[in-house]
């Protein structure tokens, strides 16, 4: 389990290197530093084990995107914990490997500051909540652990849990 500190931070380490290039408009995609397909599959396998998730297509992304929807009976998070309906995170296709997810505002800000994420363009323009971020695809096993940690926090946020 991951628990945020008293000030809402989770003490993410700094992501190494430069931020990847991303598309500044929809579809919001990662353009370089792509996650290898085997790491994407490892991450997806983990994502499918989260309690109360329904797997399916995204309600807001490209057709090759795999999404996590929370069962409505346990979707107790605030409205800004979801992309659409009870979809709280999705993994883009192999030619991208990044994820969109909703994170609590303080954790989203920390993930952005530490180089793991960026606001969705529509969130930057304040059309969508500041909780909606793109988390960059993991380039190695250490990054996989950090991204998996953020996915679990997103899942907890969608459930309305204090911990993930």
From TrEMBL:
Matching InterPro entries: Luciferase, Luciferase_dom
Superkingdom in the source lineage: Bacteria
Compositional bias (Basic and acidic residues): 8-21
UniProt region (Disordered), positions on chain: 1-36
Membrane-spanning intervals of the chain: none
Start and end residues of each Luciferase domain: 85-154
PANTHER family: AMINO ACID PERMEASE_ SLC12A DOMAIN-CONTAINING PROTEIN
Protein name per its UniProtKB record: DUF5519 family protein
């Amino acid at each position: 389990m991951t628990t945020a500190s008293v000030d809402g931070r989770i003490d993410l380490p700094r992501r190494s290197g430069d931020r990847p290039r991303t598309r500044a408009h929809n579809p919001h995609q990662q353009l370089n530093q792509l996650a290898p397909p085997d790491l994407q599959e490892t991450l997806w396998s983990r994502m499918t084990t989260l309690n109360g998730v329904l797997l399916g297509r995204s309600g807001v992304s490209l057709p090759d995107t795999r999404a996590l929807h929370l069962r409505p009976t346990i979707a107790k998070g605030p409205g800004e914990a979801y992309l659409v309906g009870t979809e709280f995170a999705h993994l883009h296709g192999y030619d991208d490997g990044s994820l969109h997810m909703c994170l609590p505002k303080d954790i989203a800000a920390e993930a952005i500051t530490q180089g793991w994420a960026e606001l969705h363009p529509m969130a930057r323009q304040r059309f969508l909540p500041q909780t909606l971020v793109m988390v960059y695809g993991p380039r190695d096993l250490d990054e996989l652990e950090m991204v998996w940690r953020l996915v679990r926090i997103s899942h907890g946020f969608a459930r309305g849990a204090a911990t993930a």
